[in-house]
């Protein structure tokens, strides 16, 4: 699975890192597995760094990820900052965030980690 969860002791933040090749099915499976991990406490903000992820969702996949019936639980009840490469990945992530917001997700997209962390901590 090309996603890993890191929760550092004493840090009120979970980090999810996506890397390598992936596809729609395995991304959904990974998000489900991470959401069930007991280290991911309810409400804890998430920095999801996908800059090293080779997968780029298609428009129908973006819509499916953000639909009310299939929005991954990782995006429910917490702030999620998506840290992306500039360009196509950033654009796809922005489209996802826009589609997920009406479903109740709090998702913002960033190309700079310091800005993402500031938003997660409520300083932006």
Write up this protein.
By secondary structure, the protein is α/β, with parallel strands linked by helices. It has one domain (about 5-120): STAS domain (Transcription Regulator spoIIAA). It contains 4 helices and 5 strands, in the order ββαβαβαβα. The protein has a 5-stranded mixed β-sheet, with helices on both faces. The model has no long low-confidence stretch (mean pLDDT about 95).
For this structure, the CATH topology is Transcription Regulator spoIIAA
Instruction: Output the number of helix runs.
Output: 4
End-to-end gap:
32 Å
Instruction: Output the radius of gyration.
Output: 13 Å
* Uncertain runs: none
Q: Overall mean pLDDT score?
A: 94
- In the CATH hierarchy, the architecture is 2-Layer Sandwich
Reading the helices and strands in chain order gives: EEHEHEHEH
How many domains, as an integer?
A: 1
Q: Structural class of the helices, strands and pairings?
A: alpha/beta
Main sheet: strand order: 1-2-3-4-5
Write the layout of secondary structure elements.
Blueprint: E1 3-7, E2 14-20, H1 24-36, E3 46-53, H2 59-65, E4 79-83, H3 88-100, E5 106-110, H4 113-120
Parallel strand pairs: 2-3, 3-4, 4-5
Antiparallel strand pairs: 1-2
Helix pairs in contact: 2-3
